[in-house]
Amino acid sequence: MWKAVEVDAWIAGRKSSLEDARETVTAIIGRIRTEGDAALRDLAKKHCNLQEIAVSEEEREAAYEQVDTNIVESLIEAEARIERFHELQRPRDLWLENIEPGIVLGVKTTPLRRVGLYVPGGRAAYPSSALMCAVPARVAGVAEICACSPPPIKPLTLVALDIAGVTEIYNAGGAQAIAAMALGTESVKPVQKIVGPGNVYVTLAKMMLREYAEIDFPAGPSEIGIIADDTADPSIVAADILAQAEHDPNAACILITTDRKLADKVGREVDFMAARAPRKDIIVKALDNSGYTVVDNLDQAIAAMDMIAPEHLSIQVADPLSVVTRVKNAGAIFVGKYSAVACGDYAVGTNHVLPTAGYAKTYSGLDVQHFLKTATVEILDREGLEAIGDIVETIADAEGLTAHADSVRIRRRR
User: Fold this and answer.
1) Are 208 and 25 spatial neighbours (Cβ–Cβ below 8 Å)?
2) pLDDT for residue 219 is more than 90
3) Counting C-beta atoms within 10 Å of the first and last residue's C-beta, which end of the chain has fewer, N or C?
4) Model pLDDT for residues 4-35, shown as the tens digit of each residue
């Protein structure tokens, strides 16, 4: 299972899986567009006999009775920690700055009105993803937050969505859920933006429907990149690899190390742990997408990892901060042996909804800014207009836009 891999081949493998899903996703989007709720019900038949697409208040309340009190309390505590961190990201609603006499400039920030969250289901409940998607939207001030999750939605997920303040919950999973939120159905009103992780079908549907609803970023099957030297603990490295591998058969993990002996030790630990893992079948498949690369030095390790741009980056070297300062592309960075990726998944407060498949080169992880939009504000008095009037008129005339220039001239003459 544990093998040497070429970085270029590993990257290519992460990209190709999306295109493999295009035909299926195109057909699903077409059905939602023409059939609406009927398509949602029909596509859910492989999982359950879906009657009501919208989850009622009674169902929300009943979910609490099916979840252990300790788990509910842990979700409440995690929600508070996630909120605390995301509150730090919220900008001022309006700022104005007197740039020079007569000219005041600023930015007005407004939350989106209606957003959609996708919370994965199927193989397991993901209440953590419910919190990660909903809390920053609520902190941003979004008025209508709807969520879709594969039916039947697990009680854990319902409880988490309720704790996080989601206003609407719908029984819909996969690419059809994304299409419902983007295009609308009889039950689901269209949203302005869709966020949340999912499998390749969900991720591709988000990318294909951006004409109708903006998205956060491509957030597909989980992945981890680890930079390690000879000081790393092989059992900890292996544990982080298995933690990502158990998510999904399409998850992928890559270790880039300066120490060949470490790679071998990690391999033995991976085999040992995988053989005893409850989700062994999923882990084994994910390990087919995984492996290690040995490099000569940390400079090469950093360069290779920047090419990969992993969703999660774990740095386990003697001087980790020196690596942090040089790394450019990663969704989230975990520094040192005690910074388990799982802490970021659940309760440290940072967000675990992150770009995958190399998209961390251009996208940032989910945060409050994803649910806000801005407009610049310009306030000029007579003195300010005079300060820039000649510049505006000269450039406008040069472009042949005489009316632009005249709109300034008429003000200056009065």
Assistant:
1) yes
2) no
3) C
4) 998 988 888 776 667 788 999 999 999 999 99
Could you report the per-residue pLDDT of 185-212, keeping only the tens digit for each?
999 999 999 999 988 899 999 999 999 9
Domain count, the chain: 3
Looking at the structure, tell me whether residues 71 and 48 fall in a common domain: yes
Residues 196, 204: Cα–Cα separation, whole Å: 12
Residues involved in catalysis: 311-312
Q: What is the CATH number of the domain that holds 229?
A: 3.40.50.1980
DSSP bridge partners of 147: 117, 169
Assess whether 151 and 232 both reside in one domain: no
* Residues in Cβ contact with 181 at an 8 Å cutoff, skipping those fewer than 6 apart: 116, 118, 146, 148, 188, 190, 191, 194, 213
Using the structure block, give the residue that is written with the tokens 């790393």: 232
**Residue 22 within any structural domain of the chain:** no
> Within a domain: residue 375?
no
User: 163 lies in a domain?
Assistant: yes
Residue-range definition of the domain harbouring residue 59: 36-216
Separation between Cα atoms, residue 169 and residue 171, nearest integer Å = 7
Indicate the pTM of the whole model.
Answer: 0.92
Could you say which of 192, 216, 240 is where a domain stops?
A: 216
Phi, psi of 374 (to 5 degrees): -125, 155
152 cis-preceded (ω within 30 degrees of 0)? yes
Residue 205 falls within a domain, yes or no? yes
For residue 230, give every residue at least 6 positions away whose Cβ sits within 8 Å of its Cβ, in sequence order, or none: 258, 259, 261, 262
Domain boundary among 216, 242, 274: 216
* Longest alpha-carbon distance in the chain: 84
Residues 212 and 236 in one domain: no
List of residues 6+ apart from 309 with CB closer than 8 A: 329, 330, 331, 355, 358, 359, 360, 361
Distance separating alpha carbons of residues 345 and 113, to the nearest angstrom? 27
Closest CA to 262 of 224, 226, 299: 226
φ/ψ of 51, rounded to 5, equals -105, -65
Same domain, 175 and 46: yes
Structure tokens at 12: 């290519």
In whole angstroms, give the CA distance from residue 377 to residue 371: 20
Q: Is 109 within 8 Å of 93 (Cβ atoms)?
A: yes
